[in-house]
Amino acid sequence: MTKNYSSIIDNNDTSASSISSIPALSVFSDIGTSLDEQRPLLTNSTVDSSVCSNVEVCFEEPSATIASAAINLSNTILGTGMLAMPAALACVGLIPGMLIILYAGTTSGIGLYFLARCAGKVGGRNASFSSLSKLTWPKLGIFFDMAIAIKCFGVAISYLIILGDLMPQVIRSFFHHADEVELLMDRRFWITLSIITAVGPLSYLRKLDSLKYTSLIALFAVAYLVVIVLYHYISPNFPPPPPESIEYFHFSTKIFSQLPVFIFAFTCHQNIFSVHNELQDNSERSIIKVIFSSIGSAAFIYEVVAVLGYLSFGKDVLGNIILMYPQSHFVAYGRLAIVILVIFSYPLQAHPCRASIDKIIDSFHQKNHLPQQQDVVIVNHTKRHLIVTTCIIVASYLVAITISQLDLVLSFVGSTGSTTISFILPGFFYLKLFREDGWNWKRCVALFLVVYGFMVMSICLTFNIKRLL
Q1: Which residues, at least 6 apart from 86, have a Cβ–Cβ distance to it below 8 Å?
Q2: What share of the chain is helix, strand, coil (3-state, %, to 5)?
Q3: Please, are residues 355 and 43 in contact by the beta-carbon 8 Å criterion?
Q4: Alpha-carbon distances, residue 228 vs 310, 331, 341 (angstroms)
Q5: How much is the pLDDT for 214?
Q6: What residues have CB less than 8 Å from 425, skipping those under 6 apart?
């Protein structure tokens, strides 16, 4: 689902505005890497890095509270991963699945804590992945941007898959004879139509702040999905699956292909910098409260959806839980809310993906740009905007019409981009910036996160590749 947070940008990054009712920081800067899992943090003016790199930064007084920060960070966490959670749990069994959700939430929270501590080393309220990379390994910034671009690209693909899966069922619910029209039941038709009419044109926009109001739909869709899952579980008219389809323990190698789904579901680390920069009191104690509240509430919702969804359908549950429920107007409105949500959410993933790709391209050409070539650079950036956006749209479209398994896409995104942002980078940053502390328990845990992140990436990515073959 679309997530949000108040706008915050450092002098190297372009973020996006959130829906938080509390305005925070607004600045002009380079195209950046401060991203939302589902929604980037947009400023009111998104400007090319070559044009605004020397613009003076100015801030408004931080005014976010612990409660507002926790709510916004929770909104960042609760996304498309929730739809795939019952299927992920089904692959490992009820008890292990419940424990893995708690474990994924705990490790994610530790990564958030390390990033928040590292943010304090930046100085002022300018923390971001880019600013931390400049303090630690400036030459590796390109790899950080690659991880963010991969994650945003994968989330964008998941939106198209969800749209293609849900629209035929929405049409079938509202039009009784829709089954007779084969075209209306073709997921590829709806993906293509959305790309041409809405998703594509909106993705070319530079100013996307007006789309922030769709977060209201995000909140509605999350709550509606929980109600749908709960209602069908307790309803006497909805028969439970046979007892043999419920497995309390199911140990197999499938856990390696599904673990990234759990990791993806808790990824919100790009927005911890917004929390640090915008909190009135951004002390360590306050940030720990925000992390505990947001991770805890998200874990509770995931447990409810995963457990009740699994108990409702057993091991035959699909990778997108909302596809499992019978046709009715009650379910149809929930599906329609998700469809509307993903249509407006896709452009907000294309935007930060394009921004990260821009920075990668700039890293290869920056040394060749002389001051007197500034006008040429601006023109090139305008052309690049069109070319890169087109490549993102076309590539995501081709993948979405080829692959229909939502959990498979989330597995790849979770084992690459999410793992890097959630574990590897927090661990690396903490090890580097707090090396004067010696090998205390925190730095040992940071090292564990780095090793764990690389292990998850290599092992789970291997299993997912084999899954395709």
Answers
A1: 305, 306, 309, 310, 313, 317, 321
A2: 70, 0, 25
A3: no
A4: 13, 7, 17
A5: 62
A6: 115, 129, 132, 144, 147, 269
Dist. CA 268–CA 80, nearest whole Å = 13
Average pLDDT, integer, range 51-79? 67
**Would you say residue 77 has pLDDT above 80?**
yes
Average of pLDDT values for 290-309? 94
Of 169, 173, 319, 340, residue with least CA distance to 257: 319
- The enclosing H or E element of 343 equals helix 329-365
SS3 193: helix
Alpha helices (H) in 120-238, listed in sequence order = 129-135, 141-174, 187-194, 200-203, 215-234
64 forms beta bridges with: 279
Domains and CATH numbers, the chain: 67-368+376-466 (1.20.1740.10)
Give how far the C-alpha of residue 364 lies from the chain's centroid of Cα atoms, to the nearest Å.
Answer: 27
Span 74-78, average pLDDT: 79
The stretch 239-245 carries a mean pLDDT of: 87
- The pLDDT value given to residue 318: 86
